[in-house]
Design brief:
The chain has helices at 59-73, 82-89, 116-134, 139-142, 161-173, 188-202, 218-228, 245-254, 268-274, 294-297, 300-312, 326-338, 382-385; strands spanning 3-21, 24-38, 43-48, 149-156, 178-182, 207-211, 235-237, 258-261, 289-292, 316-319, 346-349, 369-371. With 386 residues, it is α/β, with parallel strands linked by helices. Strands 4, 5, 6, 7, 8, 9, 10, 11 and 12 form a nine-stranded mixed sheet that branches. Strands 1-2-3 form a three-stranded antiparallel sheet. Converts 2-succinyl-6-hydroxy-2,4-cyclohexadiene-1-carboxylate (SHCHC) to 2-succinylbenzoate (OSB). InterPro entries: Enolase-like_C_sf, Enolase-like_N, Enolase_C-like, Mandel_Rmase/mucon_lact_enz_CS, Mandelate_racemase_C, Mandelate_racemase_N_dom, OSB_synthase_MenC1.
């Protein structure tokens, strides 16, 4: 295929209300939409939504790199295979995924350092275009046995327990079987009031997961989970700081629920250790699951590599959004459909958090599931998402 047009458009997302995590509060997200067009008029879409505190490059670096890459792509002939997409972006290093600091081949300007958000945007646009040329949904490029739909969890964003209860009951009424609640960054007493209120409101059968965003020390994590574990938790995401896998392993060994590594995947060194049976981790996996953020890992293909390696070590995997737009969430849904297991709900039901979410697109959850469109590629109209 030959790329005849390659454009970059700024994208700004405003949240209806700030989302508080232990790392800070988010009210807006800024990034870019990548649009590639081939000689037959087919269009591939990608999205870059940098999140530096999770390990991506800055917004300015992302824009500069993407601008240079897209300029160099115009007029180029690329192969019609997934391998051609990998070759365009450069192959993975032998031990970890491309997010470790890939360099685009010599025909592209070299980036100043790791640029996973830019890599994600270009890879997604290329995969979308390739899938459209082959006439298949994008997930079929990732796995022949990709599932037609993915389970998704509902993110509860309210702070006040009463508001949380209302939000939780609404989510359950809409068909969600898994609820996710942010913890840490406040007192344990406050967190317990919030968790208890949600559990009592939805009953024992709804799965409840917590996300600490690395906001607890190891002692705090153990004390918090000892208390919060009484409320029947499915799992807790990143209870301890991202760089300390030993602490994460020790917390997992005594936690009343599964521990999932999230922010730990944003560091190449920590990711490498996580995907090995390092003796300091007792010869086994550090955690029960890994949380895949394609924007942080550098794309869908690196995310799939991490999931497959994690599965071989006995760890499950699921996909979450990093507060991205529709294009990135669509790609993440296709990755979730291609994972070795779909048992854990993915965190892709965040459209309701945004002030101007496109009213009609095929990735809106229905009854706690996203059913992937059967149309080629991502199945998105550029006019709807830009």
């Amino acid at each position: 295929m030959r790329i005849v047009q390659a454009t970059l458009t700024p994208l700004r997302l405003e949240l209806l209300q700030p989302l508080k995590t232990s790392r800070g509060s988010y009210s807006t997200r800024e990034g870019f939409i990548v649009r590639l067009e081939d000689e037959e008029g087919r269009v591939g879409l990608g999205e870059a939504m940098p999140l530096p505190e999770f390990g991506t490059e800055s917004l300015s670096v992302c824009g500069e790199v993407l601008g240079a890459w897209l300029s160099s792509l115009k007029g180029q002939f690329l192969g019609d295979t997934v391998r051609a997409v990998e070759d365009t972006l450069s192959p993975f290093p032998p031990t970890v995924a491309r997010g470790e600091g890939v360099r685009i081949r010599a025909r592209h300007p070299a980036p100043p350092g790791p640029v996973p958000a830019a890599e994600h945007a270009l890879e997604l646009a290329l995969l979308d275009l390739l899938a459209k040329r082959q006439g298949v949904p994008l997930c079929w490029l990732l796995a022949e046995e990709a599932r037609p739909e993915v389970l998704v969890s509902a993110l509860l964003s309210e702070e006040n327990p009463d508001a949380l209860v209302e939000q939780a009951r609404k989510a359950v009424a809409e068909g969600y079987a898994t609820l996710k609640l942010k913890v840490a960054g406040r007192s344990l007493e406050d967190d317990e009031r919030r968790v208890k209120a949600v559990r009592e409101a939805v009953g024992p059968d709804v799965k409840l997961r917590l996300d600490a965003n690395g906001g607890w020390s190891e002692p705090d994590a153990k004390r918090s989970l000892d208390k919060l574990g009484w409320y029947g938790l499915e799992l807790v995401e990143q209870p301890t700081p991202a760089e300390d896998l030993s602490a994460l392993w020790r917390v997992q060994r005594r936690a009343p629920c599964m521990v999932a590594a999230d922010e730990s995947l944003g560091s190449p060194e920590t990711l490498r250790a996580l995907l090995s049976a390092d003796p300091f981790l007792g010869g086994g996996p550090a955690v029960g699951a890994v949380v895949l953020k394609p924007m942080v890992l550098g794309g869908l293909l690196p995310g799939l590599v991490v999931a497959m390696r994690a599965a071989r070590l006995g760890m499950q995997a699921y996909v979450t959004s990093s507060l991205d737009g529709v294009v990135a969430r669509a790609g993440a849904a296709h990755l979730a459909a291609a994972l070795p297991s779909g048992a854990l709900a993915s965190g892709l039901a965040v459209g309701h958090l945004f002030a101007r979410e496109p009213p009609m697109h095929p990735y809106q959850p229905v009854h706690g599931r996203i059913r992937l469109p059967e149309t080629p590629g991502l199945g998105l109209d550029a006019g709807v998402v830009m």
